[in-house]
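Lab notebook: predicted structure, single chain.

Context: the supervisor wants predicted structures on file for every construct in the current expression panel, including those that have not yet been purified. This is the next one on the list. No modifications to the sequence; it matches the entry in the shared construct table.
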Amino acid sequence: MALKGTDVVKKLPELGKKNCKECGFPTCFAFAMKLAGGGTSLDKCPHLSPETRDELLDALAPAIRLVTIGAGEGSSVLQIGNEEVVYRHEKTFLHPTGVALLVSDSEPESSVGEKFRKINKLHFERVGVHLSANLLALRHDSGDKEKFAALARKACSAGPAPGAAGPPGIMLISEDADALLAAWDACAGRRPLLYPVTHENIDRILPKLRERPTPVGVRAGSIEELVPLTARLRQEKLDEIVLDPGSRSLMDGIRDQTLIRRAAVKQSFRYLGYPTVAFPCLMTGDPMEEALLAAAFIVKYASIVVLSDLDRHTLLPLLTQRLNIYTDPRMPLSVKEQVYEIGEPGPDAPVLVTANWALTYFIVSSEVEGSKVPAFLLVKDTEGLGVLTGWAAGKFTGDSVAAFIRKSGIEEKVKTRTVLIPGMAGRIRGDLEEALPGWKIVVGPREASDIPSFLPAFAAGLKQ
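Prediction complete. Output recorded below exactly as produced.
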């Protein structure tokens, strides 16, 4: 349960309860309410003891802790966790499931190289969002510690895919603690996820984690057996943990993932308040079944799914499903308000205007591109609403569209003074003509699918 402002006030020191105002708020209660709502930070109060500060930090933390795998910026960093709800409609899911590609050190060099190429090559764009797999899961199967370290070094030296902000993150998998630590040394600068930490090897790994903290994957035979492991790591102030309850079937996996999420969110059980990992690659040998298992775990709370291979025909649907689930239902997808050039439009090119709902933009721009007519597409900010909904909400009106056209700079790019508005918004034509003297307002098709047949004749008319 989320900490309330009244609970925060009770934990403030007596000196702080005298409304000293050093935090920038008029009263301690005002500070506590703002802190509980996430509107300020604990460091604003100078009178907190270290013990109270740690207690409040823990109480104010999200039900599922944030874990960051990788270093730097861009696609080389995967953030998981930080979740606060069981069901998406309650609020939203925040950090999308990471997709990992399994690479064994016993595979031939050609197979390893092909998998490295796949994770760099299989990138997609959907409604303006970049989609790709996130991690290379390197597994030690050869029994040769040096060979595993060499694979880790090779993964670290691989550059990013063309257009990507960085290379994929790294997950190291080994039952041999010494091999795991050696591979960690080979790619320590990349801040990999070490897996698995178990009851058998935690004493060997823990001293190294104290020296150089990094995310760890904790594995046990059941949910109950995870708790002593996470409790020990928490005691050492090592809080970037990923949980694996050891389930290796769909039914057991969904059961365990659900129980972990509910215990963390509904019962505020901190020892299970961490993101989780699932291994569809270990549950079946059928690639199609593996993709279906991964889809189930993306829906039911896994923060990382590990796949044995990547294929565009299964990866794209998985990434699209992930995008749908982790899109905030309270906020429609939108694109930036600006002038978009389609093709290579010149001063005689047509000018169209539409709303900035992502689906509207991509449909309209795709149809304009399909018409083979270079054009300027003016995308008006409607806070992610479509044309008709934007008009009904007062965000796609004649006055507001006219103001956008004037400030867009389009008048400096075209000689014509004609703008094509969506047929669904034809009723704003009169207001636009009044607000844009000297411009001709033309009402276009009601459906975007009619643009390819309408636009060539419209563009030809502008040149006459």
